[in-house]
Task: inverse folding
């Protein structure tokens, strides 16, 4: 295969950088060119000579693109150059050998797929300008803007760039795999954070519910105490009110008896009834045997609660434990069992 590659290099035209296209002409300096390439070089070197049928019909000159030797042509132009039949036969043998060995279509057939040059009409883009990093045509290299540039066969550059692109794609694909792994990790982190947040909010609510239950118990106990004292005072006041009512009713009866006795005309009978009646009237005016309600007895203000101190304590309290606090709590639980839930207690003033 190496011998075939070396042979192919010897069959490359210095103008189009592809395998010579028949017919192949041999220059006086013994260098070979495709007739079309030789005609293109000759035409570009002699732009003012008259043409006939697309080729120059009179003599002219141009320089060999390989050795810069000046080639003088007669009136037949490039058609007056001798064909190199040996090279043409070798090209035919090379193409047959390449086709039989599965090497694919020869370069001369593949070049038909090349795009055309936008500067030189009818010229295919068949070489690569290494200096500017762009594909171009043979005429651009010989006479155009790429004349002083370094060029290379477009096939070799194609394989090199294709390999470079393949390596770049492989590198990006590998990087994409790593990025996808990072994205998956971040998505998993989001899921874990959401799950941990929900679980922790549930635990926090449970802890605060326990604290609320303690406060609710304190409120219930204090409310029961207020209700108990209220019932006790109401029972006492209602009993005392009943006693005063009965005493008032008896007094009213004594007044009626006194008025009736005042109307008694018989003096002896009047005097006989007056003595006990006066004693009863005197007793009716006395309330010494009845209890007196103390001033402020109905007041219930001593059950008022004050949470100013506890409120400040709650506002300044940090419910989040540090690692050291958690370690201390773990030690206390190991030594004393489960610690009871603590909460601020309501203070009562008597």
Result:
């Amino acid at each position: 295969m190496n011998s075939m590659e070396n042979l192919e290099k010897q069959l490359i035209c210095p103008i189009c950088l592809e395998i010579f296209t028949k017919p192949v002409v041999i220059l006086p300096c013994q260098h070979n060119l495709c007739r079309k390439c030789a005609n293109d070089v000759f035409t570009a070197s002699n732009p003012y000579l008259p043409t006939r049928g697309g080729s120059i019909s009179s003599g002219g000159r141009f320089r060999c693109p390989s050795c810069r030797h000046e080639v003088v042509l007669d009136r037949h132009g490039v058609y007056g150059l001798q064909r190199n039949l040996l090279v043409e036969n070798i090209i035919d043998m090379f193409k047959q050998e390449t086709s039989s060995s599965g090497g694919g279509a020869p370069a001369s057939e593949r070049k038909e797929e090349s795009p055309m040059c936008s500067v030189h009409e009818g010229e295919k883009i068949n070489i690569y300008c290494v200096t500017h990093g762009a594909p171009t045509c043979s005429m651009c290299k010989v006479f155009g803007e790429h004349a002083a540039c370094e060029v290379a066969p477009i096939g070799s550059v194609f394989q090199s760039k294709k390999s470079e692109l393949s390596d770049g794609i492989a590198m990006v694909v590998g990087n994409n795999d790593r990025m996808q792994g990072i994205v998956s990790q971040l998505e998993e982190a989001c899921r874990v954070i959401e799950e941990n947040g929900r679980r922790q909010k549930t635990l926090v609510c449970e802890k605060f519910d326990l604290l609320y239950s303690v406060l609710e118990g304190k409120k219930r106990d204090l409310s029961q105490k207020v209700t108990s004292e209220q019932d006790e005072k109401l029972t006492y006041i209602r009993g005392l009110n009943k006693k005063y009512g009965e005493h008032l009713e008896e007094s009213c009866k004594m007044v009626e008896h006194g008025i009736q006795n005042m109307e008694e005309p018989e003096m002896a009978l009047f005097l006989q009834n007056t003595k006990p009646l006066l004693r009863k009237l005197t007793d009716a005016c006395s309330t010494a045997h009845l209890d007196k309600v103390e001033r402020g007895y109905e007041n219930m203000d001593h059950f008022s609660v004050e949470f100013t101190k506890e409120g400040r304590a709650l506002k300044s309290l940090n419910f989040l434990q540090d690692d050291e606090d958690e370690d201390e709590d773990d030690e206390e639980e190991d030594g004393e069992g489960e610690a009871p839930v603590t909460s601020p207690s309501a203070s009562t003033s008597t």
About this structure: Residues 104-112, 336-350 have pLDDT under 50 and may be disordered. The CA atoms of residues 254 and 260 lie 10 Å apart. The radius of gyration is 62 Å.
